[in-house]
Amino acid sequence: MHSVGRLGGLLVGLGLFVGCGGQEPQVPAPEGAEALETAESAVYASPDSLSGLLGTYTRYWPPAAAEEITSMTLTGVEYVDHVEGSYVRTVSRACPIYGCNTETGTFWALPNNPATGALIVFKDLTGAERDFYAISQIQRSTLTGKITGIVLVKGGSVSPVPFTMTRVGF
Fold first, then answer.
1. What pTM was estimated for this model as a whole?
2. Which residue, 24, 77, 84, 124, is most buried by CB atoms nearer than 10 A?
3. Of 86, 79, 25, which is closest to residue 52 (Cα–Cα)?
């Protein structure tokens, strides 16, 4: 009986040793294969860096209330500690003429403001602040490192509702 207990302990120890080999190497996916990514890239994380932010996004969920962003294109320069540039965005607005719901201007974004956390500020063409959003979470492509999803919360709202913007194209 004693030898069976010793054998069982040996097998458990051997099983732990074999399981410590780490992750198996994976063959890299072909370029532009974000649609084929694993659930690993679907994990949202805190925005410790906004590298890969520039691009075009569309609102995913929940649907936009009046005067909220439905899509945005950000162009500019990504620095180590912030991102800045220009934007074109569409807001949810009833328009009597085509294009009155399109806004342009400049923006800047910080990944880790000590007072407010990560945020993005939109200004109009005269430099006046339009609105700002807290960036509560981001999702990155495991292949390109670009941000593929961003969770925003409109600043200054009485009852803010987080919403997700998803990258369009890569």
1. 0.71
2. 84
3. 79
